[in-house]
Amino acid sequence: MQLLSLVSLLGAAALGACQTSGANGTAVTGKLGDARQVRNNPVIGEVWVATFNSSTVKGTVTAIANTVGVNYTIDVTGLPAEKGPYKYHVHLKAVPADGNCADTGGHLDSYVRGDSPPCDASAPQTCEVGDLSGKYGTVAGPTVLKSFNDPYTALNIIMLGYIGDRGIVFHDASSARIACATLVKSPNQPKPQ
Description:
Elements: H1 2-18, E1 47-53, E2 58-65, E3 70-77, E4 87-90, H2 132-136, E5 143-150, E6 167-171, E7 177-185
Antiparallel strand pairs: 1-2, 1-7, 2-3, 3-5, 4-6, 6-7
């Protein structure tokens, strides 16, 4: 019984040490620790797409299940250059029928980190799972074509970093939500191997 108590105490101390920024500049992580890489997407190559079709912002964010995490391609136009740079995140909720980006909730934050202090891109496992721009850089307008792999997001519904049916939101330099779309499963899926 004493051994179990000692192990619990050491585990809690180690977790507490990871949650704050140390004097030596160590990265801040979530209350549940660092994000874990996703290696069990059920269908490699499964495609999900968020389609932006506002009066100004048009295009897509495509998410494709990979053997590790998700491959993203951002292909949008219409982001006003004077309002950038733009942050982009996976938010908790889908965009409602009325298109109100404010109703997409907060960022996907599976490990309970919060957004302050800002994400340290050199330690992406310590960032909010949905803070894609914090991990991979902001974008400028008016046109964006950018691809990257995020090993911490998932297209497996049982994983903490699951992104299906969630909102993708672009924020301008003032943090206002200026464009949003929901990631939905594409009807055009790869053929089983």
